[in-house]
Write a structure and sequence with these properties.
The complex is a heterodimer of chains A (about 325) and B (about 260).
Chain A: H1 3-27, E1 28-29, E2 32-33, H2 39-70, H3 82-101, H4 111-128, E3 130-131, E4 134-135, H5 137-161, H6 164-174, H7 184-203, H8 205-210, H9 215-220, H10 225-247, H11 253-265, H12 269-293, H13 303-322
Antiparallel strand pairs in A: 1-2, 3-4
Chain B: E1 4-14, E2 17-27, E3 30-35, H1 42-50, E4 57-62, E5 65-66, H2 72-78, E6 79-82, H3 94-99, H4 109-118, H5 134-149, E7 157-161, H6 169-184, E8 188-192, H7 196-202, E9 205-209, E10 215-220, H8 221-224, H9 227-234, E11 236-243, E12 246-254
Parallel strand pairs in B: 3-8, 3-9, 6-7, 7-8
Antiparallel strand pairs in B: 1-2, 1-4, 4-5, 9-10, 11-12
Helix pairs in contact in B: 4-5
Classes of the chains: A mainly alpha (about 325), B alpha/beta (about 260).
């Protein structure tokens, strides 16, 4: 199959999977699979579908951008601490609001705080993982994990300072949930920014391809690496911050989807980013349908738990198989 | 006006510890080799000429224009770079890697096919790049710069840092023939080389850097690459000989 046919087949296939995921989610409820007749339930399920699609696509595109620009297959918003940073940003803003007004606006965490938190974490990881101006891939992941842990601990500490009401709400939110309480306006905002961000990222596809060369060679073929990094980090920060503001930190979608698309369609970034958006949307809709079908005495399981249970082992698999290399088959000696 | 020139450039990595000091060179169509002992700043010089390593003082001129004022994409149409160890982080096919060189221009399958043909790897086009040996990857890097400069050779610049370090003698010879062909089409080819026999056989001109980062000499290759000069630069006695296939410079013992 030629590269062009492979690309088209992958994108069409992923689009069909996404349509199937939407249909599946619209039929999934606590009572099992079945068509809803109550207009309120139907609207609620559509809200969950749109929310999960926007969050999944945004995380996957963010992961694909980070993997490309950092030349690191293990990079993702979750591993590099962006999601934890965004979470900390939200909790800090909420706590500041609580100190100022004595009230908690827990159901509508501020978007700007999430974006600022994601940027702060990414900036910290980027600066701390540099050695003599070069980013060491092992360092990058280690620093990302440490920043993520510190942000997580700080989030828990601030939650601890909040009165019980805030604690109860945030505990569930911090695990990553596609919430039925998110207003349509915010889902629309995240959806619009995700579509725009994906479009910009696709347009950067050729530049990202050439940025696969080392810094000097990429610059020699005409890539403005500094500007490209700035735009990619900006997009990854905004997309991750927005997803965290409506769904909390959901792990591994940003890691898994680009790898899946790379296996199916190859490494060209325009296809990789578009395919990742489709795969991310489909994956999170399916995961949300899964948790909707699982009946637990304590209520609905946060979708972040499911993605972590599936994604964690996969991360270890990638770590062992690829040995910190973006290259699937570095065999040398032909 | 030279195709590429540097005027009194000084640069380095740590402040107050310059690697290159007050280097002035002009590069015209033909092959210029840059020689010097380890740590003399040869690779740094290439990166400064490319514009990816900032100079502390002095200037680099590309066809008379300050390099920093030439937009990156326009610069890429006139100047290409071959790193000592080319790396590609994505899992591309050989064809896709060569196409990366055409980022600044209209992608041309014909130029890619032609480059593959010239390096003798036409039948490897669809193979994964990372499945190749290091020497083969070095040939693909050469094909990438050939595709980058295709049709624009006259007045172009190629900066190559040890371009045949991982190649066997047959492919190294073929590579030098391609670089010579590029020079004959009007390109200024600047090559950092450690093998002085290879250097004297392919170079029109040479520039030598001293261990302290100053310019030890520059001029016609046959004048600079001779035992007395090389002894000063490297601190090693050299024997010069004319062998069946050309001149040879054979290093002897270190001298005090």
């Amino acid at each position: 199959m030629t590269a062009r046919r492979r690309t088209i087949a992958t994108l069409v296939g992923l689009a069909l999977v996404l349509v199937g995921a939407v249909v599946f989610r619209l039929h999934a409820g606590p009572g099992g699979l079945g068509r809803a007749t109550d207009p309120f339930i139907i609207e609620l399920r559509w809200l969950m579908v749109c929310s999960a699609a926007a969050v999944g696509a945004a995380l996957a595109v963010s992961g694909a951008l980070l993997q490309a620009i950092l030349r690191n297959p293990l990079a993702s918003p979750f591993i590099l601490g962006l999601t934890s940073g965004a979470g900390l940003g939200i909790v800090l803003a909420t706590y500041a609001g609580y100190l100022a007004t004595g009230a908690i606006v827990a159901m509508q965490p501020p978007v700007w705080a999430a974006v600022v938190g994601a940027f702060a974490a990414l900036g910290l990881v980027f600066v701390l993982s540099q050695r003599r101006g070069l980013i060491d891939p092992v360092h990058l992941v280690l620093v990302g994990v440490i920043v993520s842990v510190i942000c997580g601990a700080a989030t828990t500490f601030i939650q601890f300072l909040l009165p019980d009401r805030g604690m109860a709400v945030y505990t569930r939110w911090v695990m990553g949930t596609i919430s039925e309480n998110t207003p349509w306006s915010r889902v629309a905002l995240v959806g619009f920014v995700t579509i725009a961000g994906t479009g910009i990222a696709v347009l950067l596809g050729r530049a990202l391809d050439s940025a696969s060369l080392n810094d000097d060679e990429a610059a020699s073929v005409g890539v403005r690496l500094g500007l490209l990094r700035l735009v990619c980090f900006g997009l990854a920060g905004v997309l991750t911050g927005l997803t965290v503001s409506i769904a909390g930190p959901i792990g591994f979608v940003g890691l898994i989807c680009p790898h899946l698309v790379r296996i199916l369609a190859g490494a060209r970034h325009a296809t990789l980013i578009l395919g990742s958006a489709l795969a991310g949307a489909a994956l999170l809709i399916i995961a949300d349908a899964g948790v909707a079908l699982i009946r637990l005495p304590a209520g609905r399981m946060p979708v972040g738990v499911l993605t972590a249970l599936v994604g964690g082992p996969l991360f270890i698999f990638l770590l062992r198989r690829r040995g910190f290399s973006m290259n699937a088959g570095r065999g040398g000696g032909a | 006006m030279s195709v590429l020139a540097c005027d009194a450039i000084t640069t380095g990595y740590a402040r107050n510890k310059p690697v290159l000091r007050d280097i002035s060179l002009a590069f015209d169509p033909g092959i210029t080799v840059v020689i010097g002992p380890n740590g003399a700043g040869k690779s740094t010089l290439l990166r400064a000429l490319l514009g990816t390593h900032p100079v502390w003082s002095g200037s680099v001129l590309l066809q008379g224009q300050p390099l920093h004022s030439v937009p990156p994409r326009r610069r890429a149409l006139r100047m290409a770079y071959l790193a000592q160890r080319s790396t590609v982080s994505s899992n591309f096919s050989v064809r896709e890697v060569i196409a990366l060189g055409q980022y600044a221009s209209q992608p041309s399958s014909r130029a890619i096919d032609d480059a593959l043909e010239r390096i003798g790897m036409a039948d490897h086009a669809e193979r994964p790049y990372h499945a190749l040996s290091v020497g083969q990857q070095q040939r693909i890097a050469l094909a990438r710069v050939l595709a980058q400069l295709a049709g624009k050779e006259d007045g172009a610049v190629l900066l190559a840092d040890e371009p045949v370090a991982a190649m066997d003698p047959a492919h190294a010879s073929r590579c030098f023939a391609l670089l010579r062909a590029l020079a004959e089409r009007g390109a200024a080819v600047v090559i950092v080389l450690h093998d002085l026999t290879q250097a004297i056989r392919i170079a029109d001109r040479a520039a030598a850097l001293s261990p302290d980062g100053t310019l030890a000499g520059a001029g016609p290759a046959t004048e600079l690459l001779e035992p007395e000069q090389l002894r000063e630069i490297f601190g090693v006695a050299f024997d010069a000989a004319i062998l069946r296939h050309g001149p040879a410079l054979i290093p002897g013992e270190a001298v005090e």
